[in-house]
Amino acid sequence: MMPSFSLAENSQNLLVLDTPSHAVALEKSGLFKVFSVGAEIAVRPALNRVGIVVVGGTRYEVTPKLAVSQLFFLMSYSAKDPFLPESYRSDKRDLWDLIARVFLARTHQAVGRGLLYDYVTVEDELPLVKGSIRVEDQMARRPWTPIPLEVTYDDYSPNIVENKILKTALSRVLMMPGLDPNVRQRLLSLELVFAEVDSLPRGSHTPPWQLNRRNTGYQSALKLATIILENMSPGEGHGVHSMISFVVNLPGIFEDFLASIMQESFVGQFRRSLSVRTQRKQKIDREQKIEIRPDILVEEDGNQIVVADAKYKVGDQDKSAANDDIYQMVTYCKHLGLKSGHLILAGSSQGSATSTTHHLNDIGLKLHTHYLDLSASPENVIAQITNLAHKLVCSEEE
Q1: Alpha-carbon distance 45 to 114, whole Å?
Q2: Beta pairing partners, 369
Q3: What is the count of structural domains for the chain?
Q4: How far apart are CA 20 and CA 223, in angstroms?
Q5: What global pTM score does this model have?
Q6: Angstrom distance (rounded) from CA 232 to CA 61
Q7: Alpha-carbon span 386 to 202, nearest angstrom
Q8: Which of 28-37, 125-134, 310-319 has the highest mean pLDDT?
Q9: Is the domain of 142 the same as that of 181?
Q10: Which of 94, 127, 157 is the last residue of a domain?
């Protein structure tokens, strides 16, 4: 059985390493910080990071304060397939096991009727003309040789971005140590479906994909595949130096989830068109040197009407907004010309969203702090955010 060590999210406890050589890999993963304790090397969880790192056959884990299934819900939420099946909603389920099982189910559903095909541009060397000849390439590579010909043509093929993302994510999932043998076998069988599809180049960024009528059946699988590719290392080294990791940045997950639900909550609910923008950079000084980047902006016809920052504080003893957060929000409001700002904290345990308001009399601003209970049921969490989003917009109309 694989040796395993576990620490809780944001734990201040130190884990002294039996194998000090693992320290470099653990720090490189971003999941741990390394410390010297006398003559020994120890690690502690990095702030607001959870996940699993396997180094040289030893497993190191930082467990979330939320239930694993609840964390997975926040990570992989999509409007098309918002909730996990009841059989997956278990506090005891391992994060990698849950990822593998749900990815298997969603990908199998997506490609059950066959892979998507589309026209792709192909550059090739052929003994006959197909499409058009790339004259410059032909002259540069073989100026006195008539064949093969350098040609470009459009091919109706499954080798498209959507399938490449799914295949690459599938390869990453198969790297996970300790998968249930039945799950692994089903993943290997599914891999055969993608035989004519190329994997993404190692080390490359996940290419963007746009939801459309053609790929709507892929939406849930692509959302999860993107998360896998962005958070899971492809595996490095060999033997005692091998490493594979899956690391989740909790504040980023919370912000993306919050913005996604807010955007969906506006559809068809107001007479005007509202959109949610995240991390929009703006210069606030004449010299164009000082930059602000609010987590969430709600816009109406290009005008910014709501500004909010998302703060992840699940399980913290002090769930109040920090002074730095307040100063930052005041700056946002003054620059954007808004009379109120909103701090949205993941920290309530009431099963509903609660709010407090501070009136900053000297500058005529109102600062609202809202607390969400992310430990509630998925349906409840969505309802909390939907109600809050409508409250934020309506409060700006008053």
Answers
A1: 43
A2: 343, 356
A3: 4
A4: 37
A5: 0.81
A6: 14
A7: 39
A8: 28-37
A9: no
A10: 157
